[in-house]
Amino acid sequence: xxxxxxxxxxxxxxxxxxxxxxxxxxxxxxxxxxxxxxxxxxxxxxxxxxxxxxxxxxxxxxxxxxxxxxxxxxxxxxxxxxxxxxxxxxxxxxxxxxxxxxxxxxxxxxxxxxxxxxxxxxxxxxxxxxxxxxxxxxxxxxxxxxxxxxxxxxxxxxxxxxxxxxxxxxxxxxxxxxxxxxxxxxxxxxxxxxxxxxxxxxxxxxxxxxxxxxxxxxxxxxxxxxxxxxxxxx
Length: 234
What we know:
It is built from eight helices and five strands. By secondary structure, it is an alpha+beta fold. Helix 2 (about 15-40) packs parallel to helix 6 and helix 5 (about 90-110) packs antiparallel against helix 6. The longest helix has 25 residues, at about 15-40. It is elongated.
């Protein structure tokens, strides 16, 4: 079968093209399945998995259509230059999976079957290994902590000690003045933002209760970074 697919002629047979597209679909599905079992679920997971498979098959078809034709390649570059992709990819890990899918599409499109299979299997094994390694981001949840306090708040040291008690690390990254309207003058309230990584995810409610105990603190909000979900605790 591999000998059949090694043909690099400018006009491969229809059977060869069909086999390559099916192979690309299978390899892309393997990468998508690896993504599903190694990534925390969120509302957009299913859409992203489908996109991975679609992009892989489309990439294979495009590369096969171009073949060895320089004119086709330049025409494709001009056509793609007209397209603007504005999707915001928040997780850099997703970019790695997208590049893996494009690798499959290009390798299959140029009939590099052996390299496509080896590259896919290697990438999937590495993704699974990293899931169970100390480098895994799945073991501890990461949050953005936000709360509002008034001008009388003078407990920065106590807040720092509290976060060190419950968090593996904390990063204070933003401080804003709350804009108010009406009789209350602007500048009486402030918002603080932290990146935090909890030592134990089930202690989040205890952390919220202790933050609420600080005088002048209100409107406590958590954003679960890994799932892009907002969870508010007042």
